[in-house]
Amino acid sequence: MKRFAASLGLVALLAWGVPALAQTAKDTLTVDLPGDAATLDPQVQWDTDSYTIYRNIFDNLVTRDTAGTIVPQIASAWRNLDDTHVEFTLRQDVTFHDGSKLTADDVVFSIKRITNPAFNSPQLSQFDQIADATITAPDKVVLSLKSPYPVLLAQLVKLSIVPKADVLARGDQAFNLKPMGSGPYRLREWQKGVQTTLDANPGYWRGAPPFKTVIFRAVPDGSTRIADLKAGKVDIVRGLAPDDAIALKSNAQLQVLSVPTERVGYLFINAQGGPTTDLRLRQAIAYAIDQQALIDALLQGYGKKVTSIGAEPIFGYQPDIKNLPYDPAKAKALVKEAGAEGRELIFNTSPAYDRRLVEAIQQMINDVGLKVTINVSDQATYLKRRQGTPQDAGSIAIGIWSCACQDADGVIFPLFRTGSSWAKYSNPAYDAAVDAARSTLDPAKRIADYRTAYQILRDDLPGIGLYQAYALYAARKELHWQPTPNESFFVMDMKWQ
Amino acid sequence: MWRYAAGRTLQALVAILGVLTIVFVVMRAAGDPTLLLVPQGASAEAIDALRHNLGFDRPWIVQYAEYLRDLARLDLGVSVVQHIPASDIVASRLPYTLELASGALLIAAGFGIPVGVLMATGRGGWVAGLLGTLVLAGQSMPSFLSGILLIAVFGVVLGWLPTSGADDLQALVLPSLALGALSMASFARMTRIAVLDELGRDHVRAARARGLSMTQTVLRHVLRNAAIPVVTVAALEIGNLLAGSVIVETVFAWPGIGQLAIQSIEARDFLVVQAVVLLVSAVHVATSLAADLAYALIDRRIRLAR
Any idea which fold B93-298 has? Predict the structure, then answer.
């Protein structure tokens, strides 16, 4: 009898449990990232792994939606008072995780903290046009700028608001280890080098977050991340190689999520040092490179041809100012004309760039009569050379550029403006155009300036655009999410079905 | 004896200081972390300002003197990348490294020693042959390959063990196998030689003559004496296991010292690299110092020769 009662109970439990199970939402989202966060204080490091994690703990002054448009977050509205003063109206219903209200005081504190040179934020250069921040009403903050600065909002997308009282009470080091923000998730535990666990903030002002818990794991090896995903240990992985993406397409339980980003693959050509100071050789290199072949064969189609160093999400990009076409015969003739057959070109690179891409470009340039020598070093050494003197920078190098600001001012200005550490090129006409574009707020005038600038670059060839890079993620089929061109990882925008 | 011990200890400290100095110079010669820290578009002035504020534009000798001063106060400094004391970072990774080394040692000795005994006694027939082949294959296969294979078979296809991470004891099994496989052959070879050596001795032959079976002879009379050289190998292999775990740690996302070392070198996080080097060189020097002193205690001639 007892046994019968027990089985009856079991049946009842099953009957009750099955529909309940079917409705149970997924509680924990587990994410594999290539690395651990360096810091969780959003005003210190902003490498992709750190940003991916802490951006879910904090709210920013403004943000970008899935389409890439700048939209309100802590600031509900803004207007230009004049060319150098912008007034922000702040939301009044936002609280930090400890229940305290987010006020204008916190916004001003956050701006002054990151722009204080003594704070040593590596991000300072993104905000150093801001001269001052003042509270003009309980819900209004005015930013004063050193000069008219059209990219201000694009930069403020990256400004997280930190709680003044908490930072001052606990100090910078303690705040970094256990940060507190106003975002959809709060930090539960940070196991350095292993994983970071976040809990949902149920009272979040934009609504309840989709998962109760999010775990970000640090898994440096790409094959291991995919194994984790296949074994069901994790739900989404970042940092997928194009070859792996193709291989995963046949797996019925998984999906590849991809989006064209603002990241541009480009080839730098040294105009101030070595053989490529001769314009004819720079032209020859441009004619020698078959962009579409690189994209099809090496990026497996997860890349899009660009006509210059820019891409559609970037303000100022001019798709109709075209790269020189692929024409190896013309390239050969130019090399011959310059009397440079067999001349050696140093191609500096690092493991951060796809070795096969480097070798394919080497082959294409060798085919037109030059001799490319690849010089591999680690990333720190590569950057030191690339940003060093024109004599040390090598003749060519590939780079993948993103300013996370979607504006040509963050792309071709640092790459080619005289005096920038990246520029191995100098042209007063070009400098005048990019300088003008960064000192007016009029979008039409800025576009005109960038047209001039891109035309000069196309004629002088201190570099050429190769492709627009795609962000690649692999995830379980049930995860619904649209990745964004600026590579944000907002768990708040994800859904499990 | 005391005089000798004091002299050797002083030598050991000089050796550690020498290693630290070399690492200090080599790391700085290869560039500082400023360029890796700033956003791509940072202006030359912003880069210079940050470099100045972080103190990397000062002469090396000044930075070196400052480092030694802090070191004398047992202050290893704060990581410029992570904003956490370097000693805390290293300390948080150390337990994982010790765990993995122990697991790997257990696997290496647990498989290697029995296989060595079987190979020496000629017992076991095709089983010994198969095990011998497996042990050799284990040593020959690079760990990035064996690691991925183990993950694919036991983690993905069979689903018996976690594919990566350091959550629990189960997660320790696969990385220990991948790392231990590298040392198995050393154990098997050394055991085989030691056991063969013992088998030829008089007391063993006497035991056999008394009618003891081979198994009994090995268990009662051989293993004990053969253990001494095997323990020596084990001590040496611990060093290899600690140092050789970089690849295994990376493949299995095991957060040990090896992975930390690579990541800090890539990030030019000087103070963390120096803390790791200090730890590793101190362990190496301390073990060799202990061995030297032990020899000297056992054998007077070693002391007199100096």
Answer: MetI-like fold (1.10.3720)
